[in-house]
Design brief:
The protein has four helices and three strands; from the N terminus they run H-E-H-H-E-E-H. It is of the alpha+beta class.
């Protein structure tokens, strides 16, 4: 993959938050929808969780240690501000 084909950090964050703004998903489904490998999705989930932009909740109804990812109100605010910034730039 050439460098010009790579998404920038904030583009990946935007993609992840947009997905989570539309639905709560498991990490594997998020990785698939965001087109990221497992190591990269782990990195961004940890980053976004530390920044309180998403939450990771244990799904007690299922076995296998699956976790549901959800956007927080702070994450929605970030998403709105980022979209506004893009509109201002363009």
């Amino acid at each position: 993959m050439h460098k010009k084909d790579r998404r920038e950090r904030f583009d990946i964050i935007y993609d992840i938050l947009t997905i989570l703004n539309n639905e709560n998903v498991y990490k594997t489904m998020l990785a698939h929808k965001a087109k990221l490998d497992s190591r990269t999705i782990d990195k961004y989930v940890n980053l976004l969780q530390r920044a309180n932009l998403i939450t990771v909740e244990d799904n007690k109804d299922r076995e296998g240690g699956r976790y549901i990812l959800k956007i927080t109100e702070k994450g929605r605010a970030f998403l709105n501000l980022y979209e506004e910034l893009i509109r201002l730039i363009n």
